[in-house]
Amino acid sequence: MNKNLALVALLNEYQLDFEMYEHEPIFTVDEGKHLSASIMGAHSKNLFLKDKKKSYFLVSVLEHKRVDLKTLSKKFGKGGLSFASKEELEQKLQLTPGSVTPYGLLHDAKKEVIFLLDEEFLQHEIVNFHPLQNDLTLSMKMKEFLRFFELIEHHPNIIKIPELS
């Protein structure tokens, strides 16, 4: 079943402009590097993390960035960020590994997942994320992307995500 039908219906209902690009399934940033040449805009890397207190985080950064989890953990004061399990990803966001995306927050009805969006996205007019499945890329203007999260009442924390040097 096409997982993104509800998402597309919602985008259309809210009258948010977007482009959808079909491609082979992409499981890693390296596998998707060639898409940057044909799909305009900023491409993303998305991490689903948890801390020692079982708080969950969805972290979205530009595709080339290597996130410093230790520094990010200290910055947010939660302690010990690590990758959440495949089962936790499915339970919280109804996503599978390789398809992690901020659009999964649509399924976070209890608002249990903290969305951390790297401030560098604000420098780009167009942003690209998987739309709940990894064989498509959803491309939209940054202002529309942010409006989507206002409409579903799941606001991003826009911060400078620390990078490994």
What share of the residues lie within helices? 25-40%
The domain tally reads 1
Give the integer mean of the pLDDT values. Answer: 92
Shape: globular
Which class of secondary structure composition applies to the elements?
A: alpha/beta
CATH superfamily: YbaK/aminoacyl-tRNA synthetase-associated domain
**CATH topology-level name:** YbaK protein
> Can you count the helices?
6
**Low-pLDDT runs:** none
Rg over alpha carbons: 15 Å
Structure report:
- The chain has a single domain (21-159), classed as YbaK protein (Alpha-Beta Complex), CATH 3.90.960.10.
- Strands 1, 2, 3, 4, 5, 6, 7 and 8 form an eight-stranded mixed beta sheet that branches.
- The chain contains six helices and eight strands.
- Helices cover 26% and strands 25% of the residues.
- A hairpin with a 5-residue loop joins β2 (42-50) and β3 (56-62).
- It has 165 residues and is α/β, with parallel strands linked by helices.
- The N and C termini lie far apart (41 Å).
- The protein is globular, with a radius of gyration of 15 Å.
